[in-house]
Amino acid sequence: MMEMMMILNHLFKILEKGAKHKKKRANNRTDEDDDDFQEPIKKMRVGKQDKVRDATKPTKTIKVPEPIRVERRPFYAYHHEALILRCSPSSFLDTIRQFTEARIADVKSMGFGPVLDINVNYICTHLGYWLVRNYDEQDSTLNIGIIG
After folding, report:
1. Which member of 52, 89, 114, 145 lies 3.0 to 4.6 Å from 75 by CB, making a disulfide possible if both were Cys?
2. How many degrees, rounded to 5, is the angle at CA 49 between CA 46 and CA 54?
3. Is there a domain that residue 59 lies in?
4. Residue 136: strand, helix, or coil
5. Where is the stretch described as Disordered (predicted)?
């Protein structure tokens, strides 16, 4: 019993020390105060000087779009470089196989039904890199190195 009293006494001392160190918040608010609809006080920057803007310089930079390429994309010979895949085809297929009937119906209703029929277990990343390098997205053509 004596040990229990000592432990409780020790805990009360710890709690009193913690209460002394806490910041006391002023609670001057009464029910008659109706400042809920007042604008908040705007914070002012202290110690920073206002920068003077040069009127001759524009405030925003304007990005110039890339010019449209008129020549064909040059042929890129095969150099054993490979794409870096972030998701293996087998994990993609495993995910699709775990879809519920409702999820499959949702995918089909969005117009992506053919994606569910993909059955690819391996992607040749070397061939993929070559295809990406030789595909001309402006003309929707694949440059296979034959000038014609």
Report:
1. 145
2. 150
3. no
4. strand
5. 22-60
